[in-house]
Amino acid sequence: MKILTSTILAGSLAALPLAAAAADSSDPIVIPIHNWSSQIVMSNVVGDLMQELGDNVEYVTTDSQAVYESIRLGDVTLELEVWEGAFGASFRAALAKGGIEDVGDHDAVTREDWWYPMWTKEACPGLPDWHALNDCAKLFATPETGDKGLFLDGPVDWLKHGKERAEALGLNFVVKNAGSAAALWAAIGAAEKDKKPVLVFNWTPNFAEAVWPGEFVEFPPWEDGCDTDPSKGPNKEALYDCGNPAHGYLKKAAWEGMKDKWPAAYCLLKKISFTNAQIAQMAKLVDVDEMEPEEAAVEWLDANRDVVDPWVEACKG
């Protein structure tokens, strides 16, 4: 009888680690926050969903390039918006070192490049061909740029290499970095009053395409290696002489230990896939409707339970 009891007890104890492994850790899932609206709202949306699964969530403000190294080391748990054009190089470098996982793509298709509202094309009808930029450079001039045009690039930490492209393609433009995404929208809004030609960094999906119809400049098509190999692109002595990918990915990434430490949350992360329209709506709630990101996340979730509920139900223990 003692032997039987011991055997049963041993079997029960052996089963305990398996049961514990099936439940998510009580340690917080660390979600990074960056400096553009859709990423902040999406992070709060996903954090709220993970809390519905019973997880603890912590948000940390993190550099949008350095975050991949932080994920690889386990200091940050995941990333919800890996844009191919802006962050593909940093993401690939982290993947090569190990410790970070590609968790799949969103349905959304991305593009990030030099952009103008349609009233600009009326003044410079050769657009969107990039060759037209030099012919129209004076239209984009400011007192600070003299006879050169101004291109307002994204924030420095987005590493968009606008200056390098202008030099590689011989563009008669001065490139300045905006301090934030909001500064880009402000520049477009200010130019709209007088229909002044304006050239800024922009991307899709975001709310701007619905507010200000416009087009991306068509640079020489992207070639793999255009950012690392001078032989790629038209200028054989320079990098960044191509446009960004016209049909870029939007990926999700995770620390490789997430699947074991938070299996339910990892399941949810795998299933999540947002569309261009859904992401644009997230950004609009902040950038147009002027909601706080946390409020915008609640608002978006309330309007999209039919989208997210199947993901949550599929990942409940």
Layout of secondary structure:
Elements: H1 2-22, E1 29-33, H2 37-52, E2 57-61, H3 67-72, E3 78-83, H4 84-97, E4 100-105, E5 111-117, H5 118-123, H6 132-135, E6 149-153, H7 162-168, E7 173-177, H8 181-194, E8 200-204, H9 208-211, E9 214-216, E10 250-255, H10 258-261, H11 263-271, H12 276-287, H13 293-303, H14 305-315
Helix pairs in contact: 2-12, 2-13, 11-14, 12-13
Summarize the structure.
The chain is of the alpha/beta class and 317 residues long. The protein is built from 14 helices and 10 strands.
Explained architecture:
The protein has helices at residues 2-22, 37-52, 67-72, 84-97, 118-123, 132-135, 162-168, 181-194, 208-211, 258-261, 263-271, 276-287, 293-303, 305-315; strands spanning 29-33, 57-61, 78-83, 100-105, 111-117, 149-153, 173-177, 200-204, 214-216, 250-255. Helices cover 44% and strands 17% of the residues. With 317 residues, the protein is of the alpha/beta class. The chain contains 14 helices and ten strands. The strands form four sheets. The chain has a three-stranded antiparallel β-sheet with strand order 3-10-4, with helices on both faces. A three-stranded antiparallel β-sheet has the order 8-5-9. A two-stranded parallel ribbon has the order 1-2. The two termini are 36 Å apart. Strand 1 (29-33), helix 2 and strand 2 (57-61) form a beta-alpha-beta unit. It folds into two domains: 27-109 and 248-315, 3-Layer(aba) Sandwich (D-Maltodextrin-Binding Protein, domain 2), CATH 3.40.190.10; 111-216, Glycine betaine-binding periplasmic protein, domain 2 (D-Maltodextrin-Binding Protein, domain 2), CATH 3.40.190.100. Helix 2 (37-52) crosses helix 12, helix 2 crosses helix 13 (293-303) and helix 12 (276-287) packs across helix 13.
